[in-house]
Amino acid sequence: MMDIDLTCDLNGLKLKNPVFTASGTYGVGEEFKDFYDVNLLGGIVTKTVTLEKREGNLPPRICETRGGIINSIGLQNPGVEAFVKENKEWLESLKTAVIVSVSGRTVDDYVRVCARLKERLRFGGVELNVSCPNERKGGVSFGQDPDAVEEIVARVKKETHLFVITKLSPWTHLVRDVACAAEAAGSNALSATNTIPAIAVDLKTRKSRIGNVTGGLSGPAIKPVSQKIFYDIIKAVEIPVIGVGGIETPEDALEYILLGATAVEVGSANMYNPMAARDILQGIRRYLLSNSMQDLSLLRGCLDEKRDGSE
Ligand SMILES: Cc1cc2nc3c(=O)[nH]c(=O)nc-3n(C[C@H](O)[C@H](O)[C@H](O)COP(=O)(O)O)c2cc1C
Q: Ligand 1: does its nearest atom lie under 6 Å from the Cβ of 99?
């Protein structure tokens, strides 16, 4: 049988394969250990951690829509100190890339969480979740503000030297500027995208189906939008970009790779099929075998944009 090589190099971070799980949909991976060996994956991105404990938003925090899920969890987490205490043993035992997702209310918050993680944990790097309000700028999302993203990334890099993935928000017409700002500030990679702001209302009760009224849409419904944003970003930067948004099948993941993704993150699909990430990895291997391809290099970034009859 042909030797398949799924390893990839995420700007110096060596991965067994390109399949990560996405933040907030996979806990720290321990929740999935009875389903399959988490170490089979290329990596995991943990739920987002903040400096202080967050209780999260009012319920209901999640609802199903056609082809998708709206969530408004509100970054519930125990705070960085408790996160490390509770998960250190598990995370340090993993033989796959561990990326800790980090968020904050101010630029300082991001730096402090990253510094604490660096002091207390052995892990692969951080994913900066910038899809949240900047307290110092009247609650405008960091992810809509290229200068704010540049400042976060530059300070985290300078003060911690951690491996940094910046996770972009799809909710801005400045997404290319934000991507370029993160790159210029030293981000090692990007991931795109986070959820898309959304609402679902109930005609009978005349209430929103989400306690916080609005939330973020994820799942198959967002794939074409996430892929378009991904497509814009990949053309704007040189650093690797991880594809996230609506990946449910191996084909979905392969499409992002065709668009140029170095790796992918599987999110909502983990929540309705606990085997999803492993199944997607196996499907990628099957695709390579059935197309007599040894690795992904002949697919990655090979989108043919010409049409018959066009120059
Ligand atoms: C229930 C839920 C919780 C999430 N929590 C986080 C989070 O804490 N941090 C983050 O960066 N993204 C979070 N996300 C967004 C996902 O990581 C991912 O970017 C998004 O869901 C799109 O991927 P998908 O369509 O495969 O789910 C969450 C998504 C869901 C569905």
A: no
Give the C-alpha separation, 192 to 194, whole Å. Answer: 6
Q: Decide whether any atom of ligand 1 lies within 6 Å of the 50 Cβ.
A: no
**Residue appearing with tokens 């790779």:** 257
**What are the angstrom distances between the C-alpha of 140 and each of 132, 171, 246, 285?**
8, 11, 26, 42
For domain 8-56+74-197+219-298, the question of CATH label 3.30.720.120 is answered with: no
Distance from the alpha carbon of residue 224 to the mean position of ligand 1, in angstroms: 16
Compute the distance between CA of residue 230 and CA of residue 241 in angstroms, rounded to an integer: 8
Query: What does DSSP say about strands 97-102 and 8-10: parallel, antiparallel, or unpaired?
Result: unpaired
- pLDDT tens digits along 247-274: 999 999 999 999 999 999 999 999 999 9
Report yes or no on whether pTM surpasses 0.85: yes
**Ligand 1 contacts CB of residue 194 (under 6 A):** yes
46-69 pLDDT, tens per residue?
A: 999 999 999 999 999 999 999 999
Map out the domains of the chain as residue ranges: 8-56+74-197+219-298
